[in-house]
Amino acid sequence: MNAMTQEKKIDPEKAIYLEQKVIGTDTMPHINLHEIKIVTPWRFKNKRQHIRYSKLLRNIRITLPYARMASQKLNAINQHLSTMETEKERKAYLKKAEKELFKEFEKPLRKLTFSQGRLLIQLIDRETGDTSYNLIKEYKGGFSAFFWQSIARLFGSNLKSEYDAEGDDKMIEHIIIMIDNGML
Asked: What is the domain count for the chain?
């Protein structure tokens, strides 16, 4: 048997099946590609800004997973709360969820530095679309939110601070996009 007439067998585990799109009378393979953001390297004005960028990169790598987990947990909690009918059930569930969250995250979050804590507050706003203050107020009540805001202010943080990707937090956004694209 010569090479031209030899039939190749395709391993079904390795085969890639593409979607198809009919254009006129032709069938064309069709693939949806994920959006990729093109990011130019950050231009540093001076050495101090380069050092700030490096520290921010390290802190984002530590805190971003916690902010993303917070967003996922919040979505799961909201989804579960939407199935509950009475206020008593909701309160009992929130109390149980709070205990589980404290058990899971209290020790690692206590190890964060002040700057990492401030960054986490901003990243939670970025990932959830709501400030930490509003989240506490929604789930724990106004008094609790006021109490934690007072504590945060003592340590130089603000639970009401909003994430501004185009303004003050432009460097943070740049680093996150680079991490998400696998460039850092």
From this structure: 1
